[in-house]
Specification:
It contains 15 helices and 11 strands. The N and C termini lie far apart (about 45 Å). With about 350 residues, the protein is α/β, with parallel strands linked by helices. Helix 2 runs parallel beside helix 5 and helix 12 packs across helix 13. The strands form 3 sheets. Strands 3-2-1-4-9-6-10 form a 7-stranded mixed sheet. A two-stranded antiparallel ribbon has the order 5-11.
Length: about 350
């Protein structure tokens, strides 16, 4: 006996299939669009007085290919960032701003840390910045996923947020000093000035703008402060808040002091006793606060994304500006797309490499 489907149900089934078809290929389509949705950035050239990193010699026994040759040069300026599909638009703008405002763009080497879609992200960068010197590193999320505790905002719990604690392990040993940058910022000044921050003071491992007017107790729970064995961590340290989205890091000293392990130890304690709420920031404060080299506030005008709950518009801090940072819930590209930008989002917009909808290639 043959089973006959009623015509009305057959038409409905066909309609439903056609309706769902775009979603069945969503992943493939999304990857194709991401790779082709950004414009090619202009090429930038060194000023006449810039040293050529091609004249330097490698000090390692690694393969003497072009990439290693550049990476190990004493004249290279190293910048580390994380890459993912969620924040790729912000990353592209940040890269462009670095190159556009530095006097020696050909000496900048980017180190991108990814945990997924590595080939896609790498090709996206190459297509928009065909002359960029960069390396991509795979970050194994399983290294840190078991150490992460939930925070006040789910975006802060992404394992890739913790990759900055593992840079010394991921990057080649010949890379001795790097500038770490988040993806939601732009520079309007020469990054070489920031990279040249001396770390000899206090024999420091890192440098960053400090904000000593912030209420430092806010970053840890009452459980932490009520336990003398924990709160005494900051004894004899003038501990101040600093934002980990912009840091200059001495990787040699980091490796020598095994600071990755020190950060992990605090994360392990957090799993047993809840001592903080804000993701990857508090472990850095526990290890480094009060012992960093302070950098002028102009290098991290942060908080432009608003607070972590409402994402309200913020104004710049008083003083000069070298770097604008949309830390917080609100991101400029999201607000611009929604036609609800904050006033300062217009300063980010000129660095946006996204093609117009009419020029998107599918």
């Amino acid at each position: 006996m043959k089973f006959k489907i009623p015509k009305s149900k057959l038409l409905f089934f066909i309609f439903l299939t056609l309706l769902c078809l775009p979603f069945l290929n969503a992943s493939k389509t999304r990857k194709t669009i991401m790779k082709d949705q950004f414009k090619e950035a202009p090429q930038f050239y060194n000023s006449p007085y810039c040293a050529s990193i091609t004249e330097a010699e490698s000090d390692t026994e690694q393969d003497t290919d072009t990439d290693t040759y550049y990476i190990c040069s004493e004249e290279a300026v190293h910048v580390a960032m994380t890459l993912d599909t969620t924040y790729i638009r912000g990353s592209m703008a940040a890269i462009l701003s670095v190159l556009q405002h530095t006097s020696c763009p050909e000496n900048i080497i980017f180190h991108f840390v990814c945990s997924s879609n590595i080939s896609l992200l790498s090709s996206t960068i190459s297509k928009s910045f065909p002359y960029l010197k960069f390396q991509v590193y795979n970050f194994d999320e399983s290294i840190v996923s078991g150490l992460i505790s939930s925070s006040i905002r789910s975006a802060l719990d992404c394992p890739l947020n913790y990759a900055r604690s593992y840079l010394a392990n991921l990057l080649p040993l010949c890379v001795r000093k790097i500038v770490y940058l988040d993806s939601d910022l732009i520079l309007v000044d020469d990054i070489i000035k920031l990279a040249s921050t001396p770390l000899t003071e206090k024999n420091a491992v890192l440098a960053a703008p400090e904000y000593c007017n912030a209420n430092f107790t806010y970053y840890f729970t009452p459980t932490f402060w009520s336990n003398p064995s924990l709160s005494l961590t900051f004894a004899n340290r003038k501990a101040c808040y600093f934002n980990t989205g912009v840091m200059v890091i001495d990787l040699e000293k980091w490796r020598e002091g095994d600071y990755t392990t020190k950060i992990e130890e605090w994360m392990e304690l957090q799993k047993r006793i809840r001592i903080y709420e804000l993701g990857s920031l508090p472990p850095f404060l526990l290890v480094f606060a009060g012992e960093i080299v302070p950098v002028d506030h102009r290098w991290n005008q942060h908080g432009l994304g608003g607070d972590n709950f409402r994402g309200l518009c913020r104004e710049l801090h008083p003083g000069p500006v070298s770097l604008l940072h949309w830390s917080g819930k609100g991101k400029p590209w999201v607000r611009l797309d929604a036609n609800r930008p904050c006033p300062l989002d217009t300063l980010w917009e000129p660095y946006d490499l996204l093609k117009t909808p009419f020029s998107l290639e599918s």
